[in-house]
Amino acid sequence: MNLWLRAPNAGSDARRAAVSRPRRILEVTLIISVIILIQGCAATPVTPPKDVVDPRAVFLLDHGRHTSLVVATPAGSMVRYAYGDWRFYADQDMTLGSALAALFLRTPATLARRELRGPPEAPALLAQMRVGVQAVYPLVVSGADADRFRDELDTLHAREPERHQYVAVYDLVFAPHPEPYTWRNNSNTRVARWLRALGAEVRGPALLSRWKLLEPLAQ
Questions:
Q1: Cα–Cα distance between 153 and 181 in angstroms, integer?
Q2: How big is the CA angle at 168 (ends 134 and 94), to the nearest 5 degrees?
Q3: Which among 28, 45, 47, 75 counts the fewest CB atoms within 10 Å?
Q4: Structure pTM?
């Protein structure tokens, strides 16, 4: 019995890939749209920890479409942290192709950092911002959690100093982040993870930069 083997058709594979790519984009777009519709205009509730030891100020900054976080130091200064897509954020490549890649693909990510002068209060913080801030949400966490959080992020930021990139328009120093940027792992969801690491309770996926600060939970 003769067995006939059909050689792979490269043209067919290419056509299938070309068809599947826009289909995948459409699927992801629909998923994102449904999630946004479900969330509606509801803000993500954030509940700070209660009765913390050695209280330390933390500021959640809503920039409209994305979020960053500022943490006070024991010396009374502050450090601002932000997460985002490297190409769109650090390289300032805001073309349609870059935006679509950040939305639909797993792209290289960045951790941005900047030290700020004290005192750790909203007026001093806002006076040093070079980007718009739509809302500031101040909360208090334990000093131990704040110091551990800063140590972890500072160590991560310092891993590849040769790749650091200062961008004056943001007044931030960008460094590579090991976890890829995706629509489910964006600046808002990343800040939500950071808040949880600082002892706060954050409910919901936090895909959008909409926040609601609640009273600390009773012990």
A1: 17
A2: 70
A3: 75
A4: 0.79
